[in-house]
Amino acid sequence: MTTHDPIPARLAALKTTPTSELKAQWRDLFDSEPPPFNRRYLESRLAYRIQELAYGDLKPETVKRLEALGEQLDARAALQQLDPLWDELFPAEQARIVALLVERVGIDTEGLNVRLRVDGLVGLAREMLTATADAAA
Predict the structure, then answer these.
(1) Is 34:42 a contact under the CB 8 Å cutoff?
(2) How many whole angstroms from its chain centre is CA 30?
(3) What pLDDT, in 10s, does the model give residues 57-87?
(4) Residue 63 within any structural domain of the chain
(5) Which of 3, 20, 60, 86 is 20 to 30 Å from 101 by CA-CA measure?
(6) What does the pLDDT read at residue 35?
(7) Is the pLDDT of residue 27 over 90?
(8) What was the pLDDT predicted at 2?
(9) What domain range is 33 assigned to?
(10) Which ranges of 1-137 would DSSP assign to H, the alpha helix?
(11) Residue 61 in domain
(12) Residues 89 and 49 in one domain
């Protein structure tokens, strides 16, 4: 005997559910008032919550990996933004950024080894992305 999983149908129904009913589901599933965001946001968060309650939350290891990937992407974006600006920075600002990014530099028979600070990359990424967002606003 096969069992029918009602979750996929429930998720598909979110697309055609009236907004007032989405808000009622939010109250039931989150035990709070829905935020004043758009319908698409409500649908995506409800879909996640429905699956979370039915199948369980992400494993802690998965959450850590996703956070690390997000930090790497932020750092990569920040470094790409920094490259064309490097020559325009004052030497003191260049030194501050290098100190923020570089944990250790070593020379051995295989060449130059540079160890970067992950937290420095993330900090720089956040700083640069915030500055970019502020400039766009």
Answers:
(1) yes
(2) 22
(3) 777 887 777 677 666 666 666 667 767 777 7
(4) no
(5) 60
(6) 87
(7) yes
(8) 58
(9) 7-55
(10) 7-13, 19-30, 39-55, 60-82, 91-101, 118-136
(11) no
(12) no
Q: Is the pLDDT of residue 124 over 70?
A: no
Q: How many domains does the chain have?
A: 2
CA distance 131 to 137: 10
Place of tokens 């939350």: 57
Largest CA distance in the chain: 72
For 90, other C-beta atoms within 10 Å of its C-beta total: 8
Which secondary structure element, helix H or strand E, spans residue 107, and what is its range? strand 102-108
Angle at 107 between CA 101 and CA 110, to 5 degrees: 115
Whether 88 and 41 map to the same domain: the answer is: no
For residues 91 and 75, the model is more confident at: 91
CA 15 – CA 26 distance, rounded (Å): 14
Residue 60 lies in a domain: no
User: Which of 33, 34, 50 shows the shortest CA–CA distance to 42?
Assistant: 34
